Amino acid sequence: MNVASLFIGLLTIVLVLNCLLLILLVLIQLPKKEAGLGMAFGGSAADALFGAGSGTVISRWTKYSTTSFLILSLVLAVMRNHQARAVGRNIASELERQARPAATAPAAPLTLTNPAATPALPALPGTDAPGPGAATPTPAPAPTPAPAQ
Q1: Distance of alpha carbon 30 from its chain centroid, rounded?
Q2: pLDDT confidence band for 2 (50 / 70 / 90)
Q3: Average pLDDT for the chain
Q4: How many other CB atoms are found less than 10 A from the CB of residue 29?
Q5: DSSP tag of 52
Q6: Over 60: is that where the pLDDT of 42 sits?
Q7: What is the pLDDT of residues 65-105, one digit of tens each?
Q8: Of the candidates 13, 22, 109, 142, which lies 20 to 30 Å from 58 by C-alpha distance?
Q9: Which residues of 54-86 are buried (b: 16+ CB within 10 A; e: fewer)?
Q10: CB contact at 8 A, 14 and 86
Q11: CA distance 1 to 112
């Protein structure tokens, strides 16, 4: 595990905690027109706890939390993208390194050491020419006449 991965994990934990804080702040905000979730979770209790001007304090905390959420999300996205590209480059260089010895090994040339030892192909039916790769037949020697007696 390297330092970048550790830092990404730490920022992810901070982002999750920030999300929970942001959810809480949105839920306890004073409602407009005395309705909404703020009233359901004790909007008047926030007035009693934080004072009459608590709506502005909670609104300010919500703005700070939202701004930090946006900044943390962007920083994490850039860092994860950078880390993924670095891992991709490492994988590509490793694959090239493994493929290089196989590409530099010389291939054995295919040569025939004794062409006469290869079997001749028969002539194709209906043609007078021998088939490809067939040895050209040499004419048979003329028979010698028998001696007269």
Answers
A1: 47
A2: confident
A3: 75
A4: 20
A5: T
A6: no
A7: 999 999 999 999 999 999 888 888 888 788 888 887 655 55
A8: 13
A9: bbeebeebbeebeeeeeebeeebeebeeeeeee
A10: no
A11: 57
CA distances from 38 to 33, 48, 62, 68 (A): 11, 14, 13, 22
Q: What tokens were used for 45?
A: 């209790």
Give the integer Cα–Cα distance in Å for 85 and 99.
21
Amino acid at 50: F
Query: Long-range contacts: 29-38, Cβ < 8 Å, 24+?
Result: 29/55, 29/58, 29/59, 29/62, 30/54, 30/55, 30/58
The reported pTM is 0.50
- Residue found under tokens 């730490």: 10
- Which residues have C-beta within 8 Å of that of residue 55, sequence separation ≥ 6? 29, 30, 46
Mean pLDDT for the stretch of residues 6-11: 93
Angle at 16 between CA 61 and CA 53, to 5 degrees: 15
The region that residue 36 occupies, defined by phi over 0 for left and psi between -120 and 50 for alpha, beta otherwise, is left
Dihedral of CA atoms 28, 29, 30, 34 in degrees, nearest 10, equals -70
